[in-house]
Amino acid sequence: MDAVLKSLMASAKSEAESAVPVNPARPSREEAEAAVRTLIAWAGDDPEREGLLDTPKRVVRAYEELYSGYRTSADKILDRTFGEIGNFDDMVLVRDIEFHSHCEHHMVPFIGKAHVAYFPVERVVGLSKIARIVDIFARRLQTQEHLTSQILTAIDEALKPRGVAILVEAEHMCMAMRGVRKAGASTVTTQFTGVFRDDPQEQVRFMSLLRGMRP
Ligand SMILES: Nc1nc2c(ncn2[C@@H]2O[C@H](COP(=O)(O)OP(=O)(O)OP(=O)(O)O)[C@@H](O)[C@H]2O)c(=O)[nH]1
Ligand SMILES: [Zn+2]
Predict the structure, then answer these.
(1) Who contacts 16 (Cβ-Cβ below 8 Å, separation ≥6)?
(2) For a FRET experiment, which of 28, 104, 155, 156 has its CA 20 to 30 Å from that of 116?
């Protein structure tokens, strides 16, 4: 295997875990565009025809956005917290955080919603930051399980709350558009820490709040 590719793969692995992803072996934009031209030709079309001439540029720009999570640190997002919460010591739940990610097996989208709850200790984080954390990890190559645990761990480590609960539901296009072709099948993953893990009653409350009071 080519050395650049090898080091790319090694750094991509460490990036997925680290707070500030760094990839010293990142290919140039021109190399990325050339790779898109190769894939177009391999699919069977002519990359030189008019309609496809600008496509490699567009695809690389789209990748910049879809995979922007490799260049953002979850720690930075969560480092601003607010202390004026009075006597509040109960669950904060952010429901229905929609996300788009790409499965690391086929690089096709999986699309769904994340629901995240935590029990703050003295300080809370801005609600939008929970959604930003979901986006950071969603905008990487993922499995749904890894996405679920990365979001949970980032919140758990940064806020040190009494507990974190997460439920992710998604439809995987690799199952809908190709392979087994089961459109409409959804995958649900959950993970709990602290009081959510230790107290089944809190898991029940989390699940009922997810279902309850829908507009
Ligand atoms: N656990 C898990 N599996 C996933 C996820 N996204 C895709 N997959 C599965 O990854 C598996 C890859 O299986 P392979 O047998 O290596 O690849 P494949 O021959 O393309 O598999 P098929 O999709 O069954 O055609 C498939 O079963 C996918 O459904 C995910 O987020 N989590
Ligand atoms: Zn897949």
Answers:
(1) 140, 146, 150
(2) 104
Ordered DSSP codes for 146-205: HHHHHHHHHHHHHH--SEEEEEEEEEEHHHHTSTT--TT--EEEEEE-HHHHH-HHHHHH
Predicted confidence at residue 18, as pLDDT, reads 43
What does the radius of gyration of the chain's CA atoms come to, in whole angstroms? 20
| pLDDT tens column, 4-61 | 455 555 554 444 454 555 677 899 999 999 999 999 999 999 999 999 999 999 999 9
Q: Which domains does the chain have, with CATH numbers?
A: 3-66 (1.10.286.10), 82-211 (3.30.1130.10)
Of the candidates 71, 94, 86, the residue with the CA atom closest to the CA atom of residue 15: 71
Q: 110 CA distance to ligand 2 centroid (A)?
A: 8
User: Which residue minimizes the CA distance to atom 9 of ligand 1?
Assistant: 105
Catalogue the active-site residues.
103-106, 144, 172, 174
Pocket of ligand 1 contains residue 46 by CB under 6 Å: no
> What pTM, to 2 d.p., does this model score?
0.89
| CB under 8 A, 24+ apart: contacts of 23-28 | 23/70
ipTM: 0.93
Distance 105 CA to ligand 1 centre (A): 6
In one-letter notation, the amino acid at residue 188 is V
Nearest CA to ligand 1 atom 16: 105
